[in-house]
Amino acid sequence: MSQSKTIIFSDLDGTLLDHFTYESTEVDEVLIQLKRAGIPVILNTSKTFAEVEFITKALNLDTPFIVENGAAIFIPIGTFDQQPSGTVIIGKYWVKSFGFPRRYWIELLNRCQQFNHLFQGFDSISVSKLAGIAGLSIEEATRAKQRQYGEPLQWLGDESQKLAFIEHLVSLGANVIQGGRFIHVGDFCDKGQALIWLTELYRKHHVNESISTIALGDGENDVPMLDVADIAVQIRSPSHKFPKLNRQPIVIKTQQIGPKGWAETIQDLLSNQLLSTTER
C-alpha cells in the first residue's frame, strides 16, 4: 500500500506574504511545522529568481521554486537522486525553462510604437521609482528588476486602451497576464504548467507514494495553478474579489486575508499530518 505525500504550491504577494507589508509573520510557525512533517512548500510566483532565492533563505525553505509566472523552475541540486531530464545546471540549481528570454519580449514591446506612451516596462523604470510604486525597499526593487524571462509593465492608460494593447500583443505571439500590480508580458507558460511538470517529477522520484497537491493564491495569474491542483485555496484579498476559476471540485475560499488565511487553511487541511510529527 502506497503512502501519501502532499506538496504545497503557493503564490507570494497577497498570499504567503501580506499584500501591503510583504511580511510573513503569520505563516512562520506553520512553515516550521510543514518542514518537520516533510511537506514541501513550493513558491510559485511572478517574482524573479533573485527575489525568490532571497525569500526562500529568509523563510528557511530548501525546496524547488517557480519564478516569473511559470517561466522557469529552479530545483536545488540534490533534491532528487539524479538530474531531471530537460534541465540545465545553473549555479546551485537544476533549471527547467519554459519560455524565451526577457530580451525577446523587450524588443517586441519596442515595436508597439502606437502604445509606448501608455506603459512603462521594468527595463525603463528606475530602481527608486519601482520601489515607490510597489512599496519595496531599494534592495528589494533591485532584485525585482532582475528579470530573466518576461517583462512586467506599469499601465498608464485606461481600460479600453489596455484591452486594445493586450489584443495587439497577443496577435504578435505574446502571453499577457494581469498580476496584482503589473501587467506581465512573456511566453505562453503559466503557474499551472509549471505545477504539473514539477508534480510529475515528484511522482517519478517517489514511486511508492501517492502525490497530492494543494495550491494557494489570490490573483488572476494564480488561476492556472489553482485550476490544476487537487485542492485549490483562494486567499481573500484586501484589494480585489476572488478571481473566477475554471474548476468546480474542492475549492476553498478563505475568510481571513493573506497570510493569516494561508496559515489557518493549511493547518485545517493538514492538521493530522502536522500533529503526528509533533507527537513523535
Give a quick summary of the entry.
The chain has helices spanning 28-36, 49-58, 102-110, 127-134, 138-144, 159-171, 191-205, 223-228, 258-278, and strands spanning 3-10, 41-44, 65-67, 72-76, 88-90, 93-97, 119-121, 151-155, 175-178, 183-186, 209-217, 231-236, 251-257. The protein is of the alpha/beta class and 280 residues long. The chain has 2 domains: 3-98 and 210-278, Rossmann fold, CATH 3.40.50.1000; 102-186, Putative mannosyl-3-phosphoglycerate phosphatase, domain 2 (Threonyl-tRNA Synthetase, Chain A, domain 2).
What do you see in this structure?
- The chain has 280 residues and is an alpha/beta fold.
- The chain folds into 2 domains: 165 residues, HAD superfamily/HAD-like (Rossmann fold, 3-Layer(aba) Sandwich); 85 residues, Putative mannosyl-3-phosphoglycerate phosphatase, domain 2 (Threonyl-tRNA Synthetase, Chain A, domain 2), CATH 3.30.980.20.
- It is built from 9 helices and 13 strands.
- The strands form 2 sheets. It has a 9-stranded mixed sheet, sandwiched between helices. A 4-stranded antiparallel sheet has the order 7-8-10-9.
- The longest helix is centred in the C-terminal third of the chain and has 21 residues.
- The protein is globular, with a radius of gyration of 19 Å.
- The mean pLDDT is 92.
Classify the helix fraction into a percent range. 25-40%
Q: What is the spatial order of strands in the main beta sheet?
A: 5-6-4-3-2-1-11-12-13
Backbone structural class: alpha/beta
CATH architecture of the largest domain: 3-Layer(aba) Sandwich
Q: Give the biggest sheet.
A: 9 strands, mixed
Under CATH, the topology of the largest domain can be stated as: Rossmann fold
Mean pLDDT: 92
Strand content: 15-25%
Q: Note the gap between the termini.
A: 22 Å
Tally of individual helices: 9
Shape: globular
Secondary-structure element string: EHEHEEEEHEHHEHEEHEHEEH
What is the CA-atom radius of gyration, in angstroms? 19 Å
